[in-house]
Amino acid sequence: MLFGGEKAGAMMSTLDTLGFERLLALPAVPAGNPRRMRYPVTVSTSVDDGQWYVRSFGTDFDLVDPTRRGTLGRWYSLGWGVVDDLQVAELLMVHAGEAGPDVLPVLDTELEHHGVTRAERSVRPGRWGTELRISAVFDRMPEGWC
Fold it and tell me: Lowest-confidence range among 6-10, 62-66, 86-90, 98-102?
């Protein structure tokens, strides 16, 4: 993915250093897909009334399938998304099956340092310790652009 901002690039570098695996930022996935990936927003298509998850802001997402979610893996993706019915160019989605005490403070500091427009995080007990999901917006796209 080509990113336009320095902030997003610096954040990606931090995530890479912390051992996160970069994933493609799929704009949408079919609801009920075999990998059970999902995003916070669901839309219906007008042609066949099919249900799709749209890459969007929030922490109610799964970037990887359940077999990988139950591991010590760490993943992120950066790309297009929807926030409050507006398109954004740089929506960061982070998921860690085990965040560890070393990761949370670093990510909090980095998000604050890079001045994200908006961020939300979810921390809960997981199979291997602390499971983490973060959704953060770096820059909004100009209205009407795709």
Answer: 98-102
